[in-house]
């Protein structure tokens, strides 16, 4: 059985970006519901004793949707930081190479997240085939992992992620999100992706977040 992970920061640490009330609903209710749903759905099935990574990469339907939403939210929380953080030189160089400049990456990332229709997630992911960083939109619970791409950064653009604090102003939420990116974590993910590929996602999920006792 899976449990809801703790937030990696205090709920009152994000200033005017996200409020404690927003985290109470988003983490304490929405994220918790995905955990509860998955635990109920896998009882008595082939996935009952599987790792979250195995479920994410081998399931479909409701089981996949809830497993993916657990992972997507886990990863989103780790992409957030109460304070400004710095990119590694390696990641900075890769973004400049693949997008022309850090400013262009920000512009493209926010534009992609702003224009994503409906509910979903906006990612920066490492393409193992091209060895380049890509910006990817996914709808609902979808994740780049199923396309064998390694997530580096994600922003949640389901309305419940920002409506409490920013109402329908998704662009305002995205600008504030960008000010609170945990670039140290993103840099680590890039380093892991280059060394371990999808194995880094397996390690993140099963050893760092949902390690079995």
UniProtKB/TrEMBL annotation:
- Check the record and name the Gene3D superfamilies matching this protein: Fe,Mn superoxide dismutase (SOD) domain, Iron/manganese superoxide dismutase, C-terminal domain
Organism annotation:
Helicobacter pylori
Subunit relationships: Homodimer.
Q: Where is the Manganese/iron superoxide dismutase C-terminal domain?
A: 89-188
Instruction: Show the catalytic activity.
Output: 2 superoxide + 2 H(+) = H2O2 + O2
Per its UniProt record, the required cofactor names are: Fe cation
> Where would I find the Manganese/iron superoxide dismutase N-terminal domain in this sequence?
2-81
Which protein is depicted? Superoxide dismutase
GO MF terms listed in the record are:
metal ion binding; superoxide dismutase activity
| Similarity section | Belongs to the iron/manganese superoxide dismutase family.
Q: A Pfam family matched by this chain, by name?
A: Sod_Fe_N
Binding residues for Mn(2+):
26, 73, 156, 160
């Amino acid at each position: 059985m899976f449990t809801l992970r703790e937030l990696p920061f205090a709920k009152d640490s994000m200033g005017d970006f996200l409020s404690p009330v927003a985290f109470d609903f988003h983490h304490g209710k929405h994220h918790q519901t995905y955990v509860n749903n998955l635990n109920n759905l896998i009882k008595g099935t082939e996935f009952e004793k599987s790792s979250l990574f195995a479920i994410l990469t081998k399931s479909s339907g409701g089981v996949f949707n809830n497993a993916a939403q657990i992972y997507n939210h886990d990863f989103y929380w780790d992409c957030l930081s109460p304070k400004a953080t710095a990119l590694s030189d390696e990641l900075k160089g890769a973004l400049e190479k693949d997008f022309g400049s850090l400013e262009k990456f920000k512009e493209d990332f926010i534009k992609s997240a702003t224009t994503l229709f409906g509910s979903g997630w906006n990612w920066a992911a490492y393409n193992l085939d091209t060895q380049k960083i890509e910006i990817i939109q996914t709808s609902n619970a979808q994740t780049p992992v199923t396309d064998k791409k390694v997530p580096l950064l994600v922003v949640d653009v389901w309305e419940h992620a920002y409506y409490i604090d920013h109402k329908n102003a998704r662009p305002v939420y995205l600008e504030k999100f960008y000010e609170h990116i945990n670039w140290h974590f993103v840099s680590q993910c890039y380093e892991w992706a280059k060394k371990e590929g999808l194995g880094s996602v397996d390690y993140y999920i099963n050893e760092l977040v949902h390690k079995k006792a």
